[in-house]
Amino acid sequence: MIPKMKVYEELLDTKVVAVIRGKNAEEATAISEAALEGGMRAIEVTYTTPGAGQVIERLSGTDALVGAGTVLDAETARHALLAGAAFIVSPHFDPEVARLCNRYSTPYLPGCMTIKEMVLASEAGCDILKLFPANGFEPSFIRSVQGPLPNVRIMPTGGINKENMNSWLEAGAVAVGVGSDLTKTYRASGREAVVESARNYMAAVQR
Predict the structure, then answer these.
(1) How far apart are CA 109 and CA 185, in angstroms?
(2) Fold of the CATH domain 4-202
(3) Looking at the annotation, which residues are catalytic?
(4) From residue 135, how far is each of 36, 93, 177 by CA, in Å?
(5) Which end of the chain is more exposed for a tag (fewer CB within 10 A), N or C?
(6) Tens digit of each residue's pLDDT (9 = 90 or more) over 140-179
(7) Which residues contact 42 (CB under 8 A, 6 or more apart)?
(8) What is the pTM of this model?
(9) For residue 189, what are the contacts with CB-CB under 8 A and spacing of at least 6?
């Protein structure tokens, strides 16, 4: 198991998390491996993908930082941890998932949209909060939140692409989650196009 603080350090360093939603385990694995070849280091395999646990187990044997996404309850979170997930991501905040992740010293990144949700998640020990869906907000929302909550770290996900990614990071996001762009690229143009897209993302964030 990767130490909790090491996971946070890697997320903050890489700044881009590839959110993978595949129609099956084979597709999700192919997209993930292409993203990794293109230089992405953090992968979030969503539990809307059939066989997500198999994908996590396979990828966790590599140098990638592999987490589980769309985790709706503690049972799914435990399944993901047993498969080798290094972090857990939800579209919402669930206190039972937070409790389980704290028990096993695993980062939990819950989806939050309101100040109340962010306060509750922070009080439950969540150090990075996922703003989801981010396409319903402007990057300036982060500065507005950090007025009353200066210690909140936010990772916007949903509607993030190469064109707006750096606007979010410059506004104070500690990382961003990107996903649909990679999946669409794979289905339209194949594996090598995903590799190239991942390279472009990482080059853009380095600039």
Answers:
(1) 26
(2) TIM Barrel (3.20.20)
(3) 44, 130
(4) 25, 19, 12
(5) C
(6) 999 999 999 999 999 999 999 999 999 999 999 999 999 8
(7) 10, 11, 14, 16, 17, 18, 64, 65, 66, 67, 175
(8) 0.96
(9) none
